[in-house]
Amino acid sequence: MKERKWWQSAIGYEIYPRTFFDSNGDGVGDLPGIISKLDYLEKLGVTILWICPFFKSPMDDNGYDVSDYYQVDPVFGKNADFLNLISMAHQKGIRVIIDFVLNHTSDEHPWFLEARTNRKSPKRDYYIWRDGKVNAEGKRVPPNNWQGFFDDSAWNYDEVAGQYYLKIFSKKMPDLNWESPALRQNIYQIARYWLDQGVDGFRLDAIAHLAKDLTWSDSPYDVGPDGTTLDSRKFSSIPRLFDYLREFKTEVLSRYPNAMAVGEVGGCATTEEALKYSGTDKGSIDMVFNFDSCWENGAYGSEHKSDEEIVANVVNLKHIFLRWYTDCRAKAWLPIYWNNHDHPRVLSQYGDIHFRKESGKMLATTLLFMYGTPFLYNGEEIGMSNVDYQEIRDFKDVSAMNYYKNAQRHMTEAEILRFLRRTSRVNARTPFQWTSGPHAGFSTHEPDTKVVGNYMDVNVESEEKDPDSILNFYRKAIALRKTPKILEAVIGGEFVLVDSEHPDVFAYAHKGATPLMVISNFRKFSATFKIPFAIKQILLHNYPTTEMKDGILTLRPFESYLLELSPEAKL
Question: Is this model's pTM higher than 0.70 or not?
């Protein structure tokens, strides 16, 4: 097998620590809780842990608002706990990457506290300050019409500072000014500190937004009732960003050749832009997360649609994966994934809770045998699904609350609830379902975030005992992908779609010495599919029997196959 970087043959697994496992009974997940589950993660077969932020924070945005990059927040444990986690994970052959928030800090970070109180302080330049405007009524208004990602103005007025500061997320998360050389050096120092502590790399949060449109001009887009409009061109993938990343590579990554960096670039980046981030020739990081594969069921923007109208666009989904493969193969490495902590549960997006086992296994097969490094999100491997909340107050999230506030103008409470159950990032942040006991075995204390009501049936404890469970299927599938023969076929063999316009079936193949084929029905009804190649053997299947006649498969709801084809198959 061709020698590759360690992350190219890895299996990633994202942990949202706040709701993964609570070791001390305070209702909040913590680092010792992750340590206690390392045996579980090792048995699952994962080899990279991506841990969401656990630094000191006021928790306005659940840790993405950092107030001290050098200290573990007491709610998650101590610095010694994290060092112990690294050591114990490494002993099991599991690498650890941490979420590094580069776009903003908390408004309680010492940098900001000094910046807002002292205009002459060097820290003032660490953030983005602008004077406001005066409207026709003589009222002070923000510097421009930019809207942030949390459904409000991208600017917040600070009475102490006497100016507006830019914040494209929460008002308690002021954006950093990457134009400041001193700020950048501070960021690089933090990164080197954690690499020296033994971390294996970073997931770089929101890196697409580090550079801004320095003209600060209004967006030409139509504005909403509050006078703002979301125009991500004002702060996404602006060319100056790539200068920052090249410097980050020089100052940090090049000094640690085994460190891995994956950047979050969101749903706006093109494959051409992705190559600027992670191309093997001129890129500064190793791969990028985009969100293209996360929303192909029409849920985004579906406020007035019924649940029956939310249907996966299988043709588009196939071509998204093919486009990223075609444009990036041999030029950049790819991560592959269904969702993360900011997106709804994949079983509710592309599967079906009424076919939980079938669709959960289908989604595993479809993802795990594609080209790239798979990243699972915690709970995906047991078929966790979206929330069943009946009260708005259960959506304890700043983004959801901002949405609710604005949506009340044009939606009923029932419509808002339905939409949030379908799309809110709270769906991914509910307590991990370990047992059928109180609080799903997550904690001995009632958690801050409400447990999904199906935990009595959907949990690790029951799936451990069921040889036919989604969990045991994931273990089998991951072990199969990691075998040298299959891994080489998946990574080294050319990826091609088969019957690419089939409206219901996602089928692809890998050319090469060991030709493979995946066939997955994405529907809750049966579909037929003609196999144009000779089959050597079935490697993985989520039904006990096969229904095929004259080379035509009758695929039952969410039925899926991994096939090894005959060597002479002409793909």
Answer: yes
